[in-house]
Design goal:
about 325 residues, about 5% strand, single chain, mainly alpha
Length: about 325
Amino acid sequence: MDKIDKKEVLRKKRGQVSKEDISKFNEEYIDKANDELIALLKSKDSQKRTLSIYLLGEINDKIAIPYLSQLFLEEKALYTRLAISEVLANFGEDAVPSLINLLGKIGNNQEKSLPEKYFNKKSFPLPRDLATRTLTKVGKIAIPFLIEFLDKKISNINDMEIFRKEQAIDALGAIAYKYGDHRSLNSLEKLGKNELLIKNKKYIIQWKIIRACCGFKNNEKALKILFLILNNINKTNNSNNINKIINCNTDYNCNYNCNVKDIITNNYGYTYNFDNTFDNNSNNSYFYPFYWEAIRSIGQIGIVNNEVINFFDSFRDNTNTQIKLALKIAKNSLKLY
């Protein structure tokens, strides 16, 4: 067996089917009761599971949604999972509650730590969580459900609850980027202000909000939220260094020099604190992903004002390669040559 044959066999084991396979299967099963197709979802043959998923989607009976959702949670075969995602997305609004219930529960590929590298693409990052990815395909009609989920009060620090909200944030950012729907900004802002998350240093969810902001093109409020999160992070990072305040409403040619720390008060009413020395051995390096993600989001949002210019300028002596790359791309995008 040559390499091509081996790859084909492997793909079939992972549930891949051809158009011819689908056509033959549909001819045989189209007149069968839905119960028979649902029973095939438990077949040991991944291709049969895939074929039954596609036919259930074609029949479009929403009775299949809970069975497909349960299989989505359990399925290991790649192409069968992709089929489930496609079919559930096509069910639209009817599938959204089930998909929200699956947030953070499928697989183990979601971000659980801050990234080590800048995301060097113009598109919104593809959500790692499969339920999130499917909700993004559903699009605008998923937004009210996601907002309701995001707005549920965080009464205590439940890591799984926060983890699931992180996936919802990804969905809202991706939908905003793809469809231009900005209804979720108020919910993102409320979450960014959540004192329980700030006090308990839940950094991933705050980083996710910064990243989601890149989906809100030309929206001033997205910038406001971004600076709010930076303020929260820098309060945590520099709580013992609140000693130098600079009201930064100067023009781009500002030549202030700061030997230790700058705390810049912007027009949004937030204070953000930057270490202009950027000692890579300092604790500040942990927060670099926030900075390069914020720079990237600002470039994507597409608004230039004094706050943006001074924020960028505060990194003028930075030597971190990822931040330098983010600045180069964002400045080019914003025509700040």
